[in-house]
User: Fold this.
Amino acid sequence: SCSAMSCRLLTLCQYETNKLVRINSVRLGSLKWTLNVVILMFICIMMLWNKQYQELDPVVSSVTAKLKGVALTQVPGLGDVVWDVVDYSGPAQEKNSFFVVTNVIITKNQKQGKCGLRTSCFCIPGVQTGACVKFDVRRKTCEVSAWCPVETRSNPPRPALLAAAAENFTVLIKNNIRFPAFNYVRRNILPQMNDAYLRGCHRGDDALCPIFRLGDIVHQAREDFAVLAVEGGVIGIQINWDCNLDRLMERCLPKYSFRRLDEKESNRTLYPGLNFRFARYHSENGVEMRTLYKAFGIRFDVMVFGKAGKFSFIQLVVYIGSTLSYYALVSDSLR
Assistant:
């Protein structure tokens, strides 16, 4: 016998084991080992399929783009205008993107002075002079100190002025990547791509060709170039690098995909499209003048994703150990 306290202490020191019953049965034994083999085969297949034996490293990337093409357009009030890369590529854009002008509203021969603001007369001092002046036969408007005449307030031309030409512009995308953990460097212009190849390659025949026709990019993003060109928008060019750096299965090639990134429904978003303003200055009789351009266009954002994998003995051991531990726990629970 023991006291109440000592009995509790002895209870804490007890150790229990499961009772095993051994059954001699060919049918049950065969079923057991068949299930074990199936489970182990599944584990091995999933390990190979998901490359759980590899160490992974995310991509580090840089992108440059080179546009090519010339457009001849008939601009109201200016006549025939030739647009080259300098004209239609717009201002310097953010990293990994380029811009193409597809439509434009032009206000000619502006000079600094006083003119009507094209609004009803509710005039306050400041840039507005406070005066209400005659705008046309029926209307009066606030007078302002500004570049006069003020910017044209009309909808962009339909069809877009540069749409037909811009659709055939091409862009060479140069993408350099690196996987620091493996000291592996590559680019989308592969070693076998020489000058002759780049002059003649076409993405319809070669999915690795780094030269893209703008119309094809927009079409593969499931958009109509002529419609998109009127007010502009944003198209994403996605480059995915999924690289296997093991010697026997080495493969590291880019895959391209395209999608529209901005909201395209004008009735569902405020200020749809994409535009910016720039001016070209000149002097007449000693007076500084300018031509103001409100340019609509398409911005192409190049986004690079990817990872590289390479055999790692440590990763293999960790995967096997963790998998077998789960397998052992399941086996014990079924006993």
About this structure: Helices lie at 4-12, 26-49, 85-88, 163-166, 195-200, 214-220, 225-231, 313-334. The chain has two domains: 26-53+312-335, 55-311. The mean pLDDT is 83. The first strand starts at residue 54 and ends at 58.
